[in-house]
Amino acid sequence: MKIYVKNMACESCKIVVQEALQELEIDSAKVELGEIITKEDVSDSEKKKLNNIIQKAGLELLEKKQGVLIEKIRTVAIEYVYKSDERPNIKFSVLLAEKLNHSYTYLANFFSEVEATTIEQFVISLKIERIKELIIFGEDTLSQIADKLHYSSVSHLSSQFKKVTGLTPSHFRELKEKRRITIQNI
In order of start, what are the domains of the chain with their CATH numbers? Predict the structure, then answer.
């Protein structure tokens, strides 16, 4: 049985869900970002208990088809940005359409209607938060960050960063304030 989870955006979220499943003695075959695959059907009362446990971590079970598709789009976008150095440079629109078996136009229109923002803006927001994270950790140069996130150049990264944050990446690095926001709040 597949169960979909909203706001599941990182490895820590997967651990929270796995622990909740163990607590409720629900046997899971797989826990992925945004998705739980159980070995057996889960009753409505068990789903309710699971939802109550994971809500403490800002997660939520999804029931409606609309929410499931939005969460799948969000999950693909998060993986696209956070695992960018593990994949070839492929356009997000192509990747999303392939992974979700819908045309990008359909997915973009659907996302915009429900979320009141575009997929592109969501991906840019994710990229900016990833850039902030990489700047704060201080292990990579701007050139390395631009390469990791598949920007065409450091100047493209810098102009997009400044447009969103109002700061240049260099100035942000100087501040060293942890101005990151969680993925769930984007």
Answer: 2-63 (3.30.70.100), 65-186 (1.10.10.60)
pLDDT < 50 positions in the chain: none
Give Cα 145 distance to the centre of its chain: 18
pTM: 0.71
Q: How far apart are CA 93 and CA 74, in angstroms?
A: 13
Per-residue H/E/C for the chain: CEEEEECCCCHHHHHHHHHHHHHCCCCEEEEECCEEEECCCCCHHHHHHHHHHHHCCCCEEECCHHHHHHHHHHHHHHHHHHCHHHCCCCCHHHHHHHHHCCCHHHHHHHHHHHHCCCHHHHHHHHHHHHHHHHHHHCCCCHHHHHHHCCCCCHHHHHHHHHHHHCCCHHHHHHHCCCCCCCHHHC
**Mean pLDDT score of the chain, rounded to an integer?**
88
Radius of gyration for the chain, computed over Cα atoms and rounded to the nearest angstrom: 18
